[in-house]
Every structure is written in structure tokens, then in C-alpha cells.
Design brief:
The chain is of the alpha/beta class and about 260 residues long. The chain has helices at about 45-50, 75-90, 100-110, 130-140, 150-160, 170-180, 180-195, 195-205, 220-225, 245, 250-260, and strands at about 5-10, 15-20, 30, 55-60, 95-100, 115-125, 210-215, 230-235. Strands 1-2-4-3-5-6-7-8 form an 8-stranded mixed sheet, with helices on both faces. Helix 5 crosses helix 6 (about 170-180).
């Protein structure tokens, strides 16, 4: 059984928490999570990949156990912080898998450091049009802590609405992570909206696979993202949603093995 090691990387901005499985050598695979989760969402995938890749799942600043970033941060700030953490860990080149916000950070990092990422898989790439942005803003209104605890129910209902089939244990985990990251979550979504994602993605020359679950909240971005890739592939996963890494980690592991090997 693979042991997932947890530790911290020191950066000039603060400590970045990460999970690691290092049973094999070779190019490491870096995993970047969605908002407002943490690297814990990748533990099942990391276990399944333990015989194929050295995996590292980082908690984005403001999420999980990483440091709290300043207000109004950008995707570039998050990317720079995670790049510094990976550099501190001795990662000179890597494969990268980003899910939702993790995809935005991955594209920023590939754009700013052209020789760092060899291949990239983007799950739920946030190539958003104005209507999508407005819809997300309406559904992601900030919540205040209520005397009667009703703010907890609001977040519970929001996550259940994303996928009604999600296991209650995972819903509970994501509610707690969202609560602990409430200061950073709104800023992270705004940072995604402000990023010149299409411009950056279309300029990349590395091999990129864009993928999406059929029921993912960012499903509509799949074909538009694929259409602007210089060196790309596309995969639609039937009957899967935004929590595919929890609900069907074997499918994710197989996609990563097939594309990155």
C-alpha cells in the first residue's frame, strides 16, 4: 500500500503544504486542486499512480494547510508561490494535472516558465465566456457566519447541488474545506475571471489534453478550449461530474497514464 507523505515547502511568502508519493523515479507529476478543496482530493488518484509516477499534490495558498495569501491575489501570485515551492522541493521539470482552478494555475505556470512543464492535462479548463462568468458570480455569493449556523447549510446545499450523487463523507469534507478557506475562495474565483486564460492557453506549445466529465460544471468549456490548442487532445468522460477524482479515480489515473507515459 502506498504511503502518502505530508510536509511543507518553505517559500518567501509562506509555507506551502503538500502530499507526496515517491515510490518511482522519473519526471514527477504535480496535481493542482479546485476551489475550495485541497490536495486531499487527489489521494485516491495518487495511490493508483504510485507505481507509475512520483506524485506531488500541493495545497494552493489560502486552502488546505498552506499559508493565507494577501487579499486580492491573482492567478499569477498563486502560480508563482507554487512554482517557488516546487523549486524548493527540487522539481526542475514536471508533468502537471490541474482541475478547475488548478487548470488556471497550471496554464499560468506553463506560460511564465516555458521549459518547466513537459505535458499537461487540464480537467474542467476554465475558458469562460461572459455569460458563464456572470452565472458563476451569481451562484458563488459570499456568505457571512450566522448566529444560528445556517451558513453551514448554505455551503452544504451548494456542494450537493453540484453533484447530488456525491458521497456524504466527501460533501462533509468539502464543506469544511470551503469554510476554512472562505477568506480566499472568493478571491480565487475572481482571480480566475481576471486571468487572460484564452490568450495564455492558445500560446502554449507543449502537449496538452483537455478533459471534462459529461456532467462537470465546466463541461461547456471543453470544445472551446480544445479548439485553441496548438498541440492538443480532448477527452469527454461519460457520466462524471466535478468530483471525478473522488468518485472515479481509476478513470483519471488511466487518462493520466495514457497521455503522460
Amino acid at each position: 500500500m502506498s504511503i502518502i507523505r505530508k510536509s511543507y515547502a518553505e517559500t518567501s511568502e509562506g509555507q506551502v503544504h503538500y502530499r507526496e508519493v515517491h515510490r518511482v523515479s522519473g519526471t514527477p507529476l504535480v496535481l493542482l486542486h479546485q476551489t475550495a478543496s485541497s490536495g486531499v482530493m487527489f489521494e485516491p488518484v495518487m495511490t493508483l499512480l504510485s507505481d507509475s509516477f512520483h506524485t506531488l499534490a500541493l495545497d494552493t495558498p489560502g486552502f488546505g494547510a498552506s499559508f493565507l495569501p494577501p487579499s486580492g491575489f491573482s492567478i499569477r501570485y498563486l502560480s508563482d508561490s507554487l512554482y517557488a515551492a516546487l523549486h524548493q522541493l527540487g522539481v526542475e521539470s514536471c508533468f502537471m494535472f490541474g482541475h478547475h482552478t488548478g487548470s488556471a494555475i497550471a496554464v499560468q505556470m506553463a506560460h511564465d516558465h516555458p521549459d518547466f512543464i513537459q505535458k499537461m492535462v487540464l480537467s474542467g479548463a476554465p475558458l469562460l465566456n461572459e455569460a458563464q462568468i456572470n452565472g458563476l458570480k451569481a451562484s458563488l455569493k459570499p456568505f457571512a457566519i450566522a448566529e444560528d449556523g445556517s451558513h453551514l447549510t448554505q455551503v452544504w446545499e451548494r456542494i450537493r447541488k453540484r453533484d447530488s450523487a456525491l458521497a456524504l463523507e466527501t460533501v462533509h469534507r468539502e464543506v469544511l474545506l470551503t469554510q476554512s478557506a472562505r477568506e480566499a475562495a472568493q478571491s480565487a474565483f475572481q482571480a480566475v475571471f481576471d486571468q487572460p486564460f484564452a490568450e495564455q492557453l492558445s500560446a502554449l506549445e507543449i502537449p496538452i489534453l483537455v478533459m471534462s466529465g459529461e456532467n462537470d460544471t465546466l463541461r461547456a468549456s471543453l470544445e472551446p478550449a480544445f479548439s485553441i490548442l496548438k498541440n492538443g487532445a480532448m477527452k469527454l468522460i461519460p457520466n462524471q461530474g466535478p468530483y471525478i477524482c473522488d468518485q472515479n479515480p481509476q478513470v483519471v489515473a488511466d487518462v493520466l497514464k495514457d497521455f503522460l507515459s
